[in-house]
Task: inverse folding
């Protein structure tokens, strides 16, 4: 029974599939469609070199609409530039540590901690406190800078990213072009 169904499915597939492909090829490769598209392009191109007589009021309306459209495009471009200006914000001091990052599709990527004293990339270590809490310890191997942060090491990057977004929302990022000293 299983072999019969399989044989029947193969026969149906062998007949129906070529019919569908044949119809598809016939519909989309017809010379008339290509000829129609070619003629349409020639007609549209001819409109650009043809001369027309239009009334003064229609000419004035076209000029006003063109100026309005141009002004709208310029304003939209200025607004988009202002909205994306935060993407120049790529360094700041957060939680007493300097951080550098880049932007990709509006998200913070490549977040790197830097020592606030020598700009060396410090090591982030886990430490445990007496009440059995895990905290982050930032240690610079270059200048011996050491800072303990009351943030779980697994949540440190997330907290820094949240602070970056908070500064963007409040506009604080515009006040500094480099980290605080």
Result:
């Amino acid at each position: 029974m299983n072999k019969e169904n399989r044989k029947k499915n193969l026969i149906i597939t062998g007949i129906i599939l070529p019919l569908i492909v044949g119809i598809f090829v016939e519909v989309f490769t017809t010379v008339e469609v290509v000829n129609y598209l070619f003629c349409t392009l020639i007609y549209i191109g001819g409109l650009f070199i043809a001369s027309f007589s239009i009334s003064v009021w229609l000419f004035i309306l076209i000029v006003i609409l063109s100026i309005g459209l141009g002004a709208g495009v310029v304003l939209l471009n200025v607004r988009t530039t202002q909205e994306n200006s935060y993407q120049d914000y790529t360094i700041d001091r957060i939680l007493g540590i300097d951080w550098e990052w880049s932007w990709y599709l509006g998200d913070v990527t490549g977040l790197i901690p830097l020592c606030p004293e020598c700009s060396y990339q410090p090591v982030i270590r886990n430490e445990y406190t007496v009440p059995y809490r895990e905290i982050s310890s930032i240690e610079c191997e270059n200048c011996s800078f050491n800072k303990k942060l009351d943030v779980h090491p697994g949540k440190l990057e997330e907290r820094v990213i949240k602070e970056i977004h908070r500064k963007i929302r409040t506009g604080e990022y515009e006040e500094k072009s480099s980290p605080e000293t």
